[in-house]
Write a structure and sequence with these properties.
about 675 residues; alpha+beta; Beta-lactamase; 5-stranded mixed β-sheet; about 15% strand; disordered C terminus; EC 2.4.1.129; transmembrane; transmembrane helix; multifunctional enzyme; peptidoglycan synthesis
């Protein structure tokens, strides 16, 4: 320990010499009268934007991005006295450096046998935070001291204290007293209580440890140090000290649902402009269900991490009747990445686009029972380039019904179907559902080559769940302006997108995806909760999707890497995204009655022979009920088998999985 004394004495000697030199150099000088504010002045009537969920539960606040300045007359005198007491009790007596403080620090250094930081005045701290680094060197201390004395010549003590309080760091991203008071108490500085002032005065010593959201024992201990020092200096009485120690202080807790709250913020800016965030004064009722939002964040985080810590994901859940955005999660950890993958990440949806092609085909009069052949066809792409789409595992299965082709996600049949209805027609159809696509992608649209966001894809599925209506996703239900005492309602916006019959038949086809198709792992769930959905897996296993719905809730999941790269064999929508979807939906639907999709009057049911697609006869070996848009059902009976027409219901046949594996493996 004693080996340290020479360097300590040397450091102290430099400081003492500097202090004596500076004191001798002090001469009266003119004091600055101009404004010292380096940021806009804090508006006197500002209040933050508060966000509540659809049930009125507090979610969080939307804070201004700009830093604001608070004049000294708006900072409580108690806070000023508390800061001076605990940080620099001789602030009003010294000229920038405190010789007595340096001497006290020297004694402590010698006793402890190590170099401490003690002895810095408020002016020196301000200089260090505003202009210098925090390195502990003699050169830096000399420069700090010289600048502190110059500051004392140029500015009044009142101005220096004002600058200090507006520049110091208070933890959790809060620079200056304006941000600190807003963050921790949702107040303006002049509204602080003495107990709150005592807490804030102790923060600058160690913002990470003593900020109001830190460990209660640490925060309370530091507050007690402040009050004890104030009592020692007779700024407060011992009785006042005890009273302030016993007062309970309530902090504004950090907001919940950061991705969703950020989306609310963006919607407010879209509606009112950027300045609305700085003006504040709003109470926003969001369409969010806070319980579902918390469930979504937890389910996505745990589900994605279970696969790989490097993966990312997103979840969007809507009420298909109103378009209300019940939950939205843009990543697995907002604190590490605030980028919202639910609304802004554009990725190829793969086979998740196919239900829209099949729905468009139904609107054109093509039926779910129609038979198609999946023998590959070649297409001229121009420039002597030939494109021949293949099934996921390059298999060929011959003839399949359109229903089976969708359940097994057959690529060749889907391309042929898109060719039949026409790319322009399909692009227009998709646009009506809310999904913008580019016609120049041509027939490759059938394989999901155009990039979409998860949010837009889920929105496009909504008409399938609600009987053909496009519901604009609604993030904000209503807004109350506290300043004007006025309400602004945001009613649901609903427009027709496709016929109720086409929506119902497509949904019945997508039910098979979860029974014997690429998401057959969800069969038990679909039996408990009537539901429909579709997997999506992009080329080289880069993106895994699942969008599924019941009559009450529609939810989409995306999983992949931010920088697209293969996830490895087995990284499919059925194996990766569907299980996350099921864990979320099981809890989301636990308190809701299990209801099926209502059949519109414009849909008829016919018992058919699935091998031919015609109404079944008594001698047909296989029979099943098929749904048709009224007027599109076949009128002649099965040409292959005799006997009278019958209407039995039998399970669908089992075919190999056209995405590359046998049906026992999900996609």
């Amino acid at each position: 320990m004693f080996s340290h004394f020479p360097s300590l004495l040397k450091e102290a000697l430099y400081s003492m010499i500097l202090g004596l030199f500076l004191v001798l150099c002090l001469v009266p000088s003119a004091r600055a009268q101009e404004s010292i504010a380096t940021y806009p002045l804090l508006p006197s009537a500002y209040t933050s934007i508060k966000v509540f969920d659809r049930e009125g539960r507090f979610v969080g606040r939307i804070m201004p991005e700009k830093r604001y300045w608070v004049s000294i007359d708006r900072i409580p005198a108690f806070l000023q006295k508390a800061v001076v007491a605990v940080e620099d009790s001789r602030f009003y007596e010294h000229g920038g450096i405190d010789i007595r403080g340096i001497a006290r620090a020297l004694v402590k250094d010698v006793v402890k046998g190590k170099l401490a930081e003690g002895g810095s005045t408020i002016t020196q701290q301000l200089i260090k935070n505003k202009y210098l680094s925090g390195e502990k060197t003699i050169d830096r201390k000399l420069k700090e001291g010289l600048m502190a004395v110059e500051f004392e010549k140029k500015y009044t003590k009142k101005q220096i204290l004002e600058m200090y309080l507006n520049e110091i760091y208070y933890g959790n991203g809060a620079w200056g007293i304006a941000q600190a008071v807003r963050l921790y108490f949702d107040k303006r500085p002049e509204e602080l209580t003495d107990a709150e002032c005592a807490l804030l005065a102790g923060v600058p010593k160690n913002p990470g440890r003593y900020n109001p959201l830190g460990k209660p024992a640490n925060v309370a201990g530091r507050r007690d140090v402040v009050l004890k020092r104030m009592a020692e200096l007779k700024i407060i009485t011992p009785r006042q000290k005890q009273k302030l120690r016993g007062q309970r202080v309530t902090f504004t807790q950090p907001g919940q649902a950061p991705y969703y709250t950020a989306h609310v913020r963006n919607k407010l800016i879209e509606r009112y402009g950027k300045e609305i965030v700085e003006q504040g004064g709003l109470e926003v009722t969001a369409a969010m269900d806070l319980n579902l939002q918390k469930l979504a964040e937890k389910t996505l985080r745990e589900g994605v991490k279970r696969i790989s810590p490097q993966l990312q994901g997103a979840l969007v859940s809507l009420d298909p009747a109103t378009g209300d955005l019940l939950a939205a999660v843009g990543g697995v950890d907002f604190s590490k990445s605030g980028y919202d993958r639910a609304f802004y990440a554009r990725r190829q949806p793969g086979s998740a686009i196919k239900p829209l092609i099949y729905a468009a085909a139904l609107e054109k009069g093509i039926t779910a029972a129609s038979i198609w052949n999946d023998t590959p066809a070649a297409y001229n792409r121009g420039n002597n380039e030939i494109w021949q789409p293949l099934n996921y595992g390059r298999e060929q299965y011959g003839e399949l019904s359109l229903r089976q082709a969708l359940a097994y996600s057959n690529n060749v049949v889907t391309v042929k179907l898109l060719e039949t209805i026409g790319v322009p027609y399909f692009v227009d159809f998709a646009g009506k559902t809310g999904l913008p696509l580019r016609a120049q992608n041509g027939l490759s649209l059938a394989l999901g080559t155009d990039e979409v966001t998860l949010h837009d894809l889920v929105r496009a599925y909504t008409p399938l769940a609600n009987g053909g209506l496009r519901t604009e996703p609604r993030t904000i239900i209503r807004i109350y302006d506290r300043n004007r005492r006025a309400w602004a309602e945001n009613p649901p916006l609903v427009t027709p997108a496709l016929s109720p019959a086409a929506a119902f038949v497509t949904t019945r086809m997508l039910k098979d995806v979860m029974v014997y198709g690429t998401a057959k792992s969800l069969k038990k769930f679909s039996q408990e909760h009537p539901s429909a959905g579709k997997t999506g897996t992009t080329d080289d296993y880069r993106d895994a999707w699942f969008v599924g719905y019941t009559p009450q809730v529609i939810t989409g999941i995306w999983v992949g890497y931010d920088k697209p790269r293969p996830g490895g064999k087995g990284f499919t929508g059925g194996a990766v995204a569907a299980p996350i979807w099921e864990r979320f939906m099981r809890t989301a639907l636990s308190a809701r009655p299990a209801v099926d999709f209502p059949k519109p009057d414009t849909v008829v049911s016919v018992s058919i022979d699935p091998t031919t697609g015609y109404p079944a006869n008594a001698d047909c070996p296989e029979k099943r009920d098929e749904f048709y848009i009224s007027g599109t059902q076949p009128t002649s009976n099965c040409p292959k088998h005799g006997g009278d027409p019958l209407n039995p219901i039998t399970p669908p046949p089992t075919l190999p999985n056209a995405e590359g594996q046998q049906p026992v493996s999900s996609r």
